[in-house]
């Protein structure tokens, strides 16, 4: 099973960063490649929440996923739903650890490509790691910008 992993430290409050980065409606401003993000259902029970949502990328491909948020431990578990192609499966874990200079945000993606996918597991892994690092850098820039902090507090 291939596994892509990337981490970055973001200056700020761990609870705030966890909440913003898991706010699906904000993903088009946080991820450069998402044109549309729509929450289909949301249920919260104490420290846990379950979200079902739909994403559309730059190529106009749309899929559904689900995400379970643990607000106490600051962990998000997710899985790509339908359609799964080009993957056989895609499982994600995002964790947020308070550190001296802010929050260490780590993303782990366990996946396997479908045999009919246009890329191999190895090709997909290289792309994913690069893609994750680029997205995390963008998250950092957005979340650490004074403009974004001011808008978030309003």
Write structural notes for this entry.
By secondary structure, the protein is α+β, with helices and mostly antiparallel strands. It has one domain: 2-Layer Sandwich (Alpha-D-Glucose-1,6-Bisphosphate, Chain A, domain 4). It contains 4 helices and 7 strands, in the order E-H-H-E-E-E-E-E-E-H-H. The protein has helices at residues 14-21, 27-30, 121-144, 146-153, and strands spanning 3-10, 34-45, 48-57, 62-70, 75-80, 87-99, 102-113. It has a 7-stranded antiparallel sheet with strand order 1-7-6-5-4-3-2. The longest helix has 24 residues, at 121-144. The model has no long low-confidence stretch (mean pLDDT 93).
Can you give keywords for this protein?
Alpha-D-Glucose-1,6-Bisphosphate, Chain A, domain 4, seven-stranded antiparallel sheet, 45% strand, 7 strands, alpha+beta, 154 residues
Give a nutshell description of this structure.
With 154 residues, this protein is α+β, with helices and mostly antiparallel strands. It has helices at residues 14-21, 27-30, 121-144, 146-153; strands spanning 3-10, 34-45, 48-57, 62-70, 75-80, 87-99, 102-113.
Secondary-structure blueprint of this entry?
Blueprint: E1 3-10, H1 14-21, H2 27-30, E2 34-45, E3 48-57, E4 62-70, E5 75-80, E6 87-99, E7 102-113, H3 121-144, H4 146-153
Antiparallel strand pairs: 1-7, 2-3, 3-4, 4-5, 5-6, 6-7
CATH topology: Alpha-D-Glucose-1,6-Bisphosphate, Chain A, domain 4
CATH class group: Alpha Beta
Radius of gyration: 15 Å
> Which range best describes the helical content: under 10%, 10-25%, 25-40%, 40-55%, 55-70% or over 70%?
25-40%
Structural class by secondary-structure content: alpha+beta
How are helices and strands ordered from N to C?
EHHEEEEEEHH
Categorize the overall geometry.
globular
């Amino acid at each position: 099973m291939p596994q892509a992993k990337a981490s970055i430290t973001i200056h700020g409050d761990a609870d705030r960063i966890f909440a913003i980065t898991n706010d699906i409606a904000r993903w088009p401003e946080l991820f450069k490649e998402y044109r549309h993000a729509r929450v289909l259902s949301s249920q919260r029970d104490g420290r846990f929440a379950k979200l079902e949502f739909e994403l559309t990328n730059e190529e106009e491909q749309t899929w559904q996923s689900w995400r379970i948020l643990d607000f106490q431990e600051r962990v998000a578990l997710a899985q790509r739903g339908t359609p799964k192609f080009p993957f056989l499966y895609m499982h994600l874990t995002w964790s947020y650890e308070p550190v001296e200079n802010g929050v260490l945000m780590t993303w782990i993606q366990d996946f396997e490509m479908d045999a009919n996918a246009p890329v191999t597991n190895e090709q997909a892994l290289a792309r994913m790691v690069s893609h994750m690092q680029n997205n995390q850098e963008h998250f950092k820039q957005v979340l650490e910008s004074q403009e974004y902090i001011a808008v978030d507090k309003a």
